[in-house]
Amino acid sequence: MINFLLARIGSAIITIFGASILAFVILRAVPTNPARLIAGPFANDEVIAQVTSQLGLDKPLFVQYFDYIVSFFAGDWGFSYSAGQPVLSQIVQRLPASAELALYAFLFAFIGAVFVTVLVSFLASKWLDRLLRLLSFISVGVPPFWLALLFLMVFFEQLGWFPGPVGRGPAPGSVHTGLFTIDYLIAGNFSGFATALHHLALPALALALGPFGYLVRLLRANLLDIVNEPFVTVLHAKGVAPVSTHFQHILPNAFLPTLTAGGLILAQLLGGSVLVERIFVWPGIGTLVIDGILRQDYAVVQAFIMLSAIIYIGVNLLVDILYGYVDPRVRRS
Amino acid sequence: MVGVVMFAIIIFIAVFGRLLWPVDPLRVDILGSLLPPSLEHPMGTDDVGRDVFARFIQGAQVSIGVAIGVTIAGTLIGGTLGLLAGLVGGWFDTIVSRTMDAILAFPPLILAMAVAIGLGPGIVSAALGVILAAIPWYFRLLRSEVLRLRTLMYVESAQALGASSFRLIRLHILPQTTSTIFIQASSVFSFSILTLAALGFVGLGIQPPTPEWGTMITEGLAYALTGQWWLGFFPGLGIFMLAVSANLIADRLRDIYDPKSGARLSL
């Protein structure tokens, strides 16, 4: 187990190293001189030369790379000149909003997918199964930002069931976790909790549909694989009740490979939040990134790109380790 | 079947749309702005009176054209690298595989975003971003196929008879992988449609005034909640139909070529 752990962590570190080089190469390919962007269109050559040396852009590339890595891991992610704030503090401020949205999107996707897939496989109806397959394709193919727009047009504008694009709603009085729903619960304020959930529902659902589709596809394939295993036939032959065969024997076996979707789903949530948050004016990192792109204030965007690579590698590592922990066969290979 | 029909409709609109609906997508008509869908304007008009259906047609051409280019480029580059890495092995394999790992370390959409920013917003850099994200998928697929096929008896005997690497690939390995490549290509096509639209949506795709579906949704955002639903609705519908139908076709191909997954069809 120790060897397995060390090997996985080692390869994750190499991957982070490779990814950082890639990010550096891609982002330093910027054809516009960053110094000119920062100094503004009216700056003269002298000022630009000054800003260039301030940013270290006149040093050799490998020194620039080294500076970039050291300052990234030291938490110096650059300065957002349009907000007049260091990027790190901007991201930290916005993190809870995005985290809460992603958390609920994940919960909706996971609970929904497990419920629907298990139900359909238990009922063993061919028509329901076809419907489920179609549903999974539709949910993977919907552009999340378009879905968010449709949700707003139908459930807010037409029906008035949910709040419009106003962000997270009123903030709780005392901050513990930064997640509104949790903070309201800690304060014992249940109507506040309901309001926060009400604001979360539409964006979280729009974000959840993609991961939901992936999970349904994966779970369904696993369930069908297991249903055809000889041990299930034996259980049937022994006269074990279908309910207990299904829930005690088939489901636990089918569940395990779903873990591997962890990384995929995270990728969907990270990318999706950039697309969905803007439509709901959600005060999260996704909105921050889009504002950065529109204002050509790329420091925020660069930090976000590197950060999401690290989170993504981290989650994949965690999934690998968990998988090795629960399934000894993986450890040995 | 549903997939093929949906796909055919959009392709038809993209190819023959301009002939059947010869309206200039860039013609501004301020007096006729924000008109709801009617016979005269099947998808309504936008905030400066441009015909949304004409823009939809051109958006379809842009999306499909770029997505086809991206899919072909990704297949050629990623596929060739995968074939070579599997056949040559050694340090070449190690270096390329590590590079691919680094690319895969980024969530695909975010990688494409990074490239689009690095090279400056525009349709070419957006396309390059999507190609870069797609290359490792082909690479991994073909590399593992080559490694698998190489151990098969008939390939080994061809090699023992003195067949060159090029001959091995051309006659014995590549023909065995075509179905896999086609399946992968239709998934990548769907991925590029969605990603290009997403990049357009965040302002990193093709630059206005050329219509692109993702950008059109952004433009429609301001009017979505004041009743002018058609601005954002139709381009999204186009993206949705194209992406879903390509995925359905990929799945159908998988069923046809892979008997094992075909058995899964029936419960």
Automatic annotation (TrEMBL), chain A:
InterPro entries: BPD_transp_1_N, MetI-like, MetI-like_sf. It is found in: Cell membrane. It holds the Pfam family BPD_transp_1_N. The keyword Iron does not apply. Residues 95-323 form the ABC transmembrane type-1 domain. It is a multi-pass membrane protein. Keywords: Cell membrane, Membrane, Transmembrane, Transmembrane helix, Transport. GO terms for molecular function: dipeptide transmembrane transporter activity. SUPFAM superfamilies: MetI-like. The chain crosses the membrane at residues 6-27, 103-124, 131-156, 196-216, 254-280, 300-326. GO terms for cellular component: plasma membrane. The keyword RNA-binding does not apply. Its main location: membrane. Belongs to the binding-protein-dependent transport system permease family. This is Peptide/nickel transport system permease protein. The lineage of its organism: Bacteria, Pseudomonadati, Pseudomonadota, Alphaproteobacteria, Hyphomicrobiales.
TrEMBL record, chain B:
Residues 64-250 form the ABC transmembrane type-1 domain. It is a multi-pass membrane protein. CDD domains: TM_PBP2. One of its GO terms (cellular component) is plasma membrane. It is found in: Cell membrane. The chain crosses the membrane at residues 64-88, 109-139, 181-206, 229-250. The lineage of its organism: Bacteria, Pseudomonadati, Pseudomonadota, Alphaproteobacteria, Hyphomicrobiales. Belongs to the binding-protein-dependent transport system permease family. Gene3D superfamilies: MetI-like. Signal peptide: none annotated. Keywords: Cell membrane, Membrane, Peptide transport, Protein transport, Transmembrane, Transmembrane helix, Transport. Its main location: membrane. GO terms for biological process: peptide transport; protein transport; transmembrane transport. This is Peptide/nickel transport system permease protein. The keyword Methyltransferase does not apply.
